[in-house]
């Protein structure tokens, strides 16, 4: 197949949009802003889900499911939340259609709901309305629940995976007896996300907290993991919120403590979404197509036969099948592409586009010599490997690719954190090198807002590991207690 | 804990509703007709999902995800489908809320959608609108796709799991080059469902086809599996539809065959839902609570310590932990309930209510004698087992419970299929013994409709293994070519 992919250096945004569609990850649907996640893309999402779900369960969480619809009045109960979430959303007003006189389908005006229902943009309100019934005593705490669900936010400008009206995600919602325990939970889940991003997706992240401006609507603290894409723009890859007692108070969720006294419950919520698919593509992929870390690749090794005669094909197939059997014993996902309808060159292109980490080609010469030609997707390099070494070689290579991809992304990220001390430098770095700009800030929302207006850069986070150091704000010259990370972001 | 469960013989319906809530499977939410699936219920659903998903993948299907919303006009494209599905449904008409002058939240009248969106009641239309883009040639076929999703049907009378406005399900949607292949697929998936119901859920089912009256809106043939609940009412547990070329024609999905000629594609769709949770409860459970087949039990073995002193507790805990470790090696899910806040009797009641298949009690005498007291949930019987045999005993018992539960349900089902030859008998059986009534029927929708009006019984299916025999219709006396199964149904 011919890839005809725009180069990143020509138009990064176009490259991304084309790649997502051409690599069969997702496409736009007939419904404004809603995407179709195609089988190949969904298979990657399933691998993310499985690993995250395992980590959630290992940390004591259980899954449950709450309604898709939220009565409009629920949003009014938590004042800051409503401003953030009850604005651009899908509103269900009727519950019946009817056939019009001209045979078309129309909304039945007699079937109007008494109270409009909002398609959940996030589930804090419906879940805390439920928790009121579930929590009476300290014995019911902590309540550690996660939900895998679809949510809808009526975005005007959408991009596949990065910003869609409907997206898939998980949302954890926990309830605790003490502030300390809730904060520990929020921090724990940020660490779970960071571990997942780095060790599973091979995406280095900065762990930090959001400034007041960038916090989740209703949160007292928002922990986040921030990744850096290859165009130097940041991407928020996951957030974990300490919600204080805001939702408990809004929904009257109290518990009897050990002394029998009624107290409001402490809350967290945390989530990652199909946006991670966008982060995956933009961190690793290149002008030839996807580059997938072996942990997330639906196919880890593809075997392509190269032959002219039926006899050659049969002999190669025998070798290929033995290799497949050996690899499967090691839980390596392998595909033998024996389609006669496509030439090897076409197949090579296809698996490059799809980011299959290792490609094994077997031709008549290989059979004669007892060798395989192995190509690495991430480096586009080839090696000849002998029959006796092949299985161990492939297994080792998959591990190496996983860590090489992480290190490559880490090198890029680390070389794109630039300390600046003047606003001129700040703007220059943003416009040339991009990446994270590490600068002193006076701590006020006003300054943050002003910088955003002037440069489109926001404070991505106050890194948890930042050094406390006295300095002067890059914009106002006022006092600062340490640097924060600015960037333009997705 | 005290169970206070209504007895099945007193009020079967009340028993069901109470049990679903008390056993922590699900509860009603603040949103009309929408349920909350609680963690214990969801854990059972996850086990169903995992097994079904494995079976779908083994039969060559891939998962994907399609939009939640369907433009209203899509439903008009397939005439019979619209009557079945585009009536009672949730309609999104607006995309924004605003704060009113009095501070309340109201729908923004300026944010009206040009075309209303329907929250999917099933996804044939949106999926076939997508398939038009995916299918060009016979090489693109078969297309074998499944989706795990939530759907919404605006039911007026709802019951937890059995009939809810929103429910969770999977829907398979496949496209084929030939009629024969599509029919084979629809039959295969019915067999997958039957195998799952029988071997995994321990629920015997009758495989059959629906009459024209009961077919899916838009299908040429609906295959189904029908189960029988303990109150003698039938429950449709899964359906698989041969859709002919109806959707391909409605959405213009053609392919170039091997000769290069354009043909319409052949379709199937098939689904099971959280309704299966209702079937599970009503097939096996008793007046003491849930009875779960080991394959679906979130906890397969629970260990309860019985002690008076701390020394006893420590010694029992040591034995319990060894047993847990041994069982986990065999992939048996085990919980040690060492809570000091609850008495053993309370715990016994709780695990009975929750349907844990095996309960192991360990007291000081057991420690002294090297024994365990093992109680079976399904039979409520107890045995004393020695230390040396316990692991193998428990493993074997789980297998036995799984097959005993199936056989018990099978005996009940088989003894509740009654052949009748007159309409008097027909009505008497329905009103006394209930179950399936096997009767000759003249094959007309009119007779079927009339019988339904008079008795509330519908034709559940024409069993695939029915004997072809000449007879006379139990209602009209007209000719019949074989018996069909009638029942009142959920």
From TrEMBL, chains A, B:
Location comes to: Cytoplasm
Instruction: Give UniProt keywords alphabetically.
Output: Aminoacyl-tRNA synthetase, ATP-binding, Cytoplasm, Ligase, Nucleotide-binding, Protein biosynthesis
> What GO terms describe the biological role, i.e. biological process, of this protein?
prolyl-tRNA aminoacylation
Q: Which reaction does it catalyse?
A: tRNA(Pro) + L-proline + ATP = L-prolyl-tRNA(Pro) + AMP + diphosphate
Query: Which major enzyme category is it?
Result: ligase
How this chain assembles, per its entry, is: Homodimer.
Specify the protein name: Proline--tRNA ligase
**Source species:** Flavobacterium cerinum
Q: What is the lineage of its organism?
A: Bacteria, Pseudomonadati, Bacteroidota, Flavobacteriia, Flavobacteriales
Gene, per the UniProt record: proS
